[in-house]
Structure formats: C-alpha cells, structure tokens
UniProtKB/TrEMBL annotation:
Domain of life the protein comes from: Bacteria
Signal sequence residues: 1-25
Region (Disordered): 234-279
GO biological process: lipopolysaccharide transport
One Pfam short name: LptD_N
Bias (Polar residues): 234-263
Matches recorded under PANTHER family: LIPOPOLYSACCHARIDE EXPORT SYSTEM PROTEIN LPTA
Name recorded for this polypeptide: Organic solvent tolerance-like N-terminal domain-containing protein
Keywords: Signal
Length: 279
C-alpha cells in the first residue's frame, strides 16, 4: 500500500479495539505503508512520522506498529518528543505498558525533572519510574551524576544500583568518588533519608579531603562521609564549613526509612532482564 498517511485502517481498528488506557497511535505517515490485517501490524518505510495520543511525536527512517498489544518498533535516527521529554536512539521499542527502550547511542532528557539518561541500551518508564541502562551508562539529576556500565533502579521510589565500576559526582555533597558498586536509596523524591553506599575499592573526595576504604557512605541529611572497614582519610582542607566529614562512629546516622538497600526495585517489568530481539 503506497500512500503517505494511513488513517482509515487506524480508525477501523480503534473502533474495534475500543477504549484503551495505553498510548495508541493517532496517525502514521511514511513513504510506503503496508498493513497486515491478519497480524494487525503496520510496516512503515521511509520518513516515518507517528503521532500518538497524549501528544507524543516519533520520527524515524523505518518502523512498525502492532495493534494487538499497542507496541511499536522504529529504527534509523529515531527521535521521540512528548511534552518536556525527548529521546534519541538508533532503535526504539515502545512496549504496551508505556516503557520505552532505546538501543544505540541513546539519549533521554526530561526537562521537567531536569534528568538525563544515556547509554547503549536504555529502558525507562516515566509512569512507574523504572529505569535500566546497559553499556556506557550515565544518569544525571540535580543532585549529581553516576557513570557505570550497568545502572538500574526506580527514580520515584527512590533506589538506584550501579555496578561494574562507578564514577560519581555529587552536587549535594560537593564530592566526587568511585566504587566497584554504588547503591543510592531515598524514601521518595522529598525524603530526608538519602544514603549513597560505595563498595569495593571505594574513594571519595569531599571539600578537598580524600576518603579511601572498602565501603564509604554518603548521607544526604548531614552531608557527611562515613567509612567502614580499614580506611584512610587524607585531610587537606581544615577550614570551617557547614559540610562536615568524618569516620563512621563519630557521626550521627541518617534517619532510617522504608527504602533501603534490601528494598526490591519497584516497577521492574518481567522483560527487563531479557535481551532484546533484533529486528
């Protein structure tokens, strides 16, 4: 079917499917469109533009839309824009639970939350808050940034686990650091019990002072660094500051909240651990 815009079949299927709560395409435009009535799949080739309800616009070189489960796949210079969210990637998968998964040079930014995710394989659901980044992972928020080969967590809960060698920059703590693994937990966006744990060959530099040890803990409330195990502190800045630092036993612990390192990551879909099927 060589047409520029494919409205008729969409309208028929929308009536047949009835009301749905997931995002559904309002129209698909491309140089060449093919509709498989049995599989209920539209295949688009060349200059693809998809307008979805809820205001999303997606452009790509090629793609396909599955009416059966309201999922989509696009590839070739993919650009996704919705309200204050933008995403670019080589390939993009849209699942029926509103999870977006970009493959290849993925960049996602939410201007409303001032949050950026980057990586080779990025999965994110803005409704549930679940996020997963594989390969050259990078997560940035107003509090700071994390860079690691693997980052997974829930940005609403809040729990983020980074592994494979983690580099961090904390605006909140005026600190930079490293650990083989990092776990950050906080009870919701407005929680006061934020706690970042660096484990394995950990080090942190805060206000010019360096901490080395098997485990370092940075707590949001008091903006302190605690050490666990045999550790070293090199103090180069002894000037007065509201941001104090010291070893574990001499500091007041952050309040305990329901979100801890043992709390399961919320919103994790079953397919989050599976490899992507290459189209």
């Amino acid at each position: 079917m060589k047409v520029k815009t494919f409205y008729a079949a969409l309208a028929v299927l929308a009536i047949a499917l009835g009301s749905v709560t997931t995002a559904m395409a309002d129209d698909i435009t491309a140089d060449v469109l093919t509709y498989d009535g049995k599989a209920k799949v539209v295949t688009a080739k060349g200059n693809v533009v998809i307008h979805a309800n809820e205001g999303a616009t997606i452009t790509a070189a090629d793609g396909e839309y599955h009416f059966e489960d309201r999922s989509a796949f696009l590839e070739g210079g993919v650009h996704y824009a919705k309200n204050q969210e933008t995403l670019t990637a080589d390939k993009l998968f849209l699942y029926n639970d509103k999870t977006a998964r970009g493959i290849g040079s993925v960049y996602y930014h939410d201007d409303a939350e001032n949050r950026t995710l980057k990586g080779d394989d990025v999965m994110y659901n803005s409704d549930t808050g679940f996020a997963k980044i594989e390969g050259n992972g990078y997560l940035e928020s107003p509090d700071g940034s994390l860079a690691a080969p693997h980052i997974e967590g829930n940005l609403k809960q809040i729990k983020v686990v980074a592994t494979g060698g983690v580099n961090l920059s904390s605006t909140l703590h005026n600190a930079t650091g490293y650990g083989d693994q990092a776990v950050y937990t906080r009870t919701g966006r407005n929680g006061t019990d934020g706690r970042l744990v660096l484990q394995g060959n950990a080090w942190a530099v805060q206000n010019g002072n360096r901490f080395d040890g098997p485990e370092l803990i940075l707590m949001d409330k008091d903006k302190v660094v605690e050490t666990k195990g045999r550790s070293t502190i090199v103090i180069t800045n002894t000037g007065g500051s509201d941001n104090t630092a010291g070893s574990g036993s001499g500091q007041e612990s952050a309040p305990t909240g329901p979100v801890t390192a043992n709390t399961p990551i919320a919103g994790r879909p079953e397919y989050a651990g599976s490899s992507i099927e290459t189209k």
